[in-house]
Write a structure and sequence with these properties.
The protein is mostly helical. Helices cover 74% and strands 0% of the residues.
Length: 91
């Protein structure tokens, strides 16, 4: 793995966190995402892998399920959402 791979991993993780935050807080994006996840992500500039899109799609806006699908604990998910100033509310 080189520096380029590391940058891509960081960018992807950041976009996953931002997409998840948007799913949990923005009804319009959530509606668009569940109709066509890949298109909704492209519209707002999120660069997600097909696996990441599928994991978020299967979570259906549920934070605990989303965390598990992304290989995170609920606490890790909350910490990452807070880091991006995403409003965190209980499920």
């Amino acid at each position: 793995m080189g520096a380029q791979d590391d940058r891509e991993d960081v960018m992807s993780q950041r976009d996953v966190e931002r997409a998840l935050g948007r799913l949990l807080t923005a009804q319009g994006f959530r509606d668009d995402f569940f109709l066509d996840p890949a298109h909704a992500c492209l519209q707002v500039g999120f660069q997600l892998t097909p696996h990441e899109v599928e994991a978020l799609h299967r979570a259906h806006g549920h934070k605990t399920r989303a965390a598990a699908l992304l290989g995170l604990t609920r606490f890790q998910l909350y910490t990452r959402m807070k880091r991006h100033q995403i409003e965190v509310t209980p499920d």
